[in-house]
Amino acid sequence: MEDSGSPILSTATVVVLLILFYGITLYVALRIRRKKENADAYMTAGNKVGFGVAAASMTATWIWASSLYASATSGYNYGISGPIHYGLWGALMILFIYPFGRRIRQIAPRAHTLAEIMRARHGSSSQLLLAGSNVVGSIMSLMTNFVAGGALIAMFSPLSFVHGVIAVATGVLLYTFWSGFRASALTDVMQVLAMLLLVGIIIPIIFFAAGFPEAFESGSANLSPEQGNFFSSEAFLNQGAPYIAAVLAYAIGNQTIAQRLFAVREDLIKKTFVTATVGYGAMVIGVGMLGVLALYLGVEPAGGDSNNLVPQMAAEYLPTALIALFLIIIIGALSSTADSDLSALSSIVMADIYGQNIAKRGRANPQTMLFVGRMTMVLATAAAVIVAGLQLDILDMLVLVGALWGALVFPVIASFYWQKVTNRAFVTAVLTALAVFLPVRFDWLPMETAFFAVMVDLLNAVGIGVILGLMAFGFFGLRAGQVTGVLATVISLPLTFGWMHEYTVLSASLVAYAVSTLVCIGMSVRSGASFDFSVISRRVGDFDERRSETDQDAPDDADADDRETAERS
């Protein structure tokens, strides 16, 4: 790699590239801007997005800084199985969304956020709990993408990390600010085409410039036995399994994903998510192979930071012209997720905080909502830029946020199917799971004490059963889900007992799933609630159309459970 004192691209070149890239995306956003903006279109594009745009947007949104950099890190740490674990499980989680997505759209065809449905189903406490988790998750996602952009620009040019972060943040905010989700979705099409160029042309050029396939023969001595084993248990337990748990939670709890679910035409949901599954898997595994190549070549990450592996390999093996193209492609990839986070945050604040909790019920002003949404984007961008200065590890952030959302997965899914789930059960399950998750994740419990180790291993087995059971339930129905969940728990218990607690990240995720599920089921089974799902479509709809107070009469607090029961009588 060239000396960091002699940047590959000049400041003027990088500035021109960024102006061209963000200038074109801003032009697209301004072209679709309406003279009289519509709050619902700003959030979900009127629920009428077609297949091509929806599939591209879903793919581009799921491929963010973590998907590119962390996949390469996984390949560098675990060998060829690393990118497979990262890309395959992430792709399957996109596929996992669609059976639940069809149910969600069936009961709430005009929704804007999942939290909005939770209010109609339970009350404001459940709504704000889900909305709050998304605010935290989206700001962390914004931060990781800004960090990736800043580091990339600093590596290739004389500009500093801070300059790069500010440039990316400003560019994304400019074009997303005007048209919200519609700008995000349409620019995603351009960005996913650029990513196809990365995987189809640029990565093969790097491979052959580095001496492929001879490099894989001569460099095999650089691998440990575990890195050379495609079926490495270390790779699965440290990367594959935690990522399965994390991305499952992202699939259900993340507003950026839900926003695309609500935006696409209902009859195109399956087609869209199946296509995005294939696109994501191919692109992410392809980029991750750069990490595997770096491992075989014996490359040391610049500054000891594995997040630098992807740009480092590009700087080493690409000619200057292709490095400029590579820079723009990666900037486009992280921008596609950053603009999705801004759109998601604006929708949460518009619909969940202002539209249903600050404004009088059914009286939210759509123009005020637009102002609130745009100001949310500005404040979120500023907050993410400030946090980006911490330069936290991207892969750690991904797993941490995903595990936090794991506490929400079962209560959220159960609330869409099971009439007996109550507001108290939902809130208590999530808060209890978080209370147990945090000490396990940050090693606050003395695992050398038999009691704690045994309890965590027991909950790990239950967590495995919950995850596999939910997957089976989504695709094959309730009976298959119940049988799979029970069998998976029974089989896992003797296999994981006595050692699983040593894998902190995986254990914390599984514990979150297990505790939230056990508490939610335990409290709901004893409840007398029998919720009528047909009322949700009347309580959740367009803000631009005046709705009666009766249609907005959703439960607001923990007393909602009693009103739900009475309403059905």
From TrEMBL:
Topology in the lipid bilayer is annotated as: Multi-pass membrane protein
Keyword Metal-binding among record annotations: no
TM segment ranges: 6-30, 51-72, 84-101, 128-155, 161-181, 193-216, 236-253, 273-297, 317-338, 371-392, 398-418, 425-444, 450-476, 483-500, 506-529
Task: Return the protein name.
Answer: Sodium:proline symporter
**Where is composition skewed (Acidic residues) in this entry?**
551-562
- Which species is listed as the source? Nesterenkonia cremea
Question: For the region Disordered, what residue ranges are annotated?
Answer: 543-569
Q: Where in the cell is it found?
A: Membrane
Q: Per the record, what is one GO cellular component?
A: plasma membrane
Family matches, as InterPro entries: Na/Glc_symporter_sf, Na/solute_symporter, Sodium:Solute_Symporter
